[in-house]
Write a structure and sequence with these properties.
Elements: H1 2-9, H2 16-67, H3 75-81, E1 86-88, E2 98-102, E3 108-114, E4 120-126, E5 133-136
Parallel strand pairs: 1-2
Antiparallel strand pairs: 2-3, 3-4, 4-5
Length: 143
């Protein structure tokens, strides 16, 4: 037995057991870290969509201050106020900084943006109602 251990001292490398233990530990760490990372990524995507909606609302208010109405706001005029937003009346993809605006009237508007996590964030302003601003994002999410 001692002879076998003396011969082993000159050999270099890891045993199969040592390698398996290391692989198992790395697997456990990955199993813990990956779901946490994916959750943070969805939160970041949602925050980007919310930020787009807030910036779009500020741009709409700037448009309103020029003429005391939201009527007449279009992609060109809103792009002049806020060039970092891709304004659209049909699509709302936050992944490409796109915001959908609709429901323009003298008293209000609706802005919406869809996060990469598929949550739709909506901001509606209607001066004829109290409260005049409502925020929605569907079930399971918060503003």
């Amino acid at each position: 037995m001692l002879e076998r251990l003396r011969r082993r001292r000159n050999e270099k490398g890891f045993t199969l057991i040592e390698l398996l233990v290391v692989v198992i530990i790395i697997g456990l760490l990955a199993a813990i870290a990956i779901p946490a990372f994916l959750g943070q990524r969805n939160k970041a995507n949602d925050a980007a969509a919310k930020s787009l909606v807030r910036n779009a609302a500020t741009a709409m208010e700037a448009f309103y201050s020029d003429g005391n109405t939201y009527v007449g706001a279009d992609e060109t005029k809103l792009k002049a106020i806020e060039p970092n937003i891709a304004w659209s009346q049909t699509a709302s993809d936050a992944g490409v900084d796109q915001v959908k605006f609709s429901g323009l009237s003298a008293n209000g508007y609706t802005i919406e943006s869809t996060s990469k996590s598929t949550k739709v964030f909506t901001y509606t302003k209607d001066l004829t109602k109290t409260p005049s601003v409502t925020r929605a994002c569907g079930s399971g999410c918060t503003w």
